[in-house]
Amino acid sequence: MEETEIPETLVKEIEYIKDLEAQMANAILEEREPSGLAVNETEKQRELEKWKENVAKAENLKSKMLLLKLAADEKRRNHEDKLKELKYRENKIVMEIMRAQEDYKRTLSGIYKENDLLRREIQTLKAKCEAKNAKCGESAQSFQLKRDIPEKKMKCTQLENIENEEDYMNISCLFHITPKIPFRLSQGEALITFEQESVAQELIKKHSHTVQMENEKILLQALPVTLETGVAFELHSKISRRNFEVSNIPELNIPEEWMREKLELHFCKTKLGGGVQKVTYDPWSQMALITFAQPLAANDIARFGSCFFNTSGWTVSFMVSPVTQRHLEQFQIFSGISRKTILLTGIKVEEEDVENVEDMIVIHFQKASNGGGEVENIKYASKGGKIAYFENDVI
Question: Does residue 168 form part of some domain?
Answer without folding.
Answer: no
